[in-house]
Design a protein that fits this description.
This protein is mainly alpha-helical. It is built from 3 helices and 2 strands; from the N terminus they run E-E-H-H-H. The longest helix is centred in the middle third of the chain and has 14 residues.
Amino acid sequence: MIICSCNVLTEAQVLETLKLGHDSRPKSVAQTYRCLGCAPRCGRCLETVRKLVAKAHLDHCHVGCAECPGHEAHDHVAEPASTGVRTLVPAE
């Protein structure tokens, strides 16, 4: 299925890129597009690619962060106390 009409990228191509080795696996949408040799144009595909990147991150998470679907199984990982303050990280 084509998820990016502007670059004619399929879901399979994006998923294949997200299966790269740990050190070379893209960790953001921007890195994913760079690995595919292109850049988003109209932006309609960004949400879909963002979801694929997030799912790939969770599928390869071995730490057990709170966002992990199975984080309860990682009792040895202490969760930081919530301060109610959100930190914004600039996009790449």
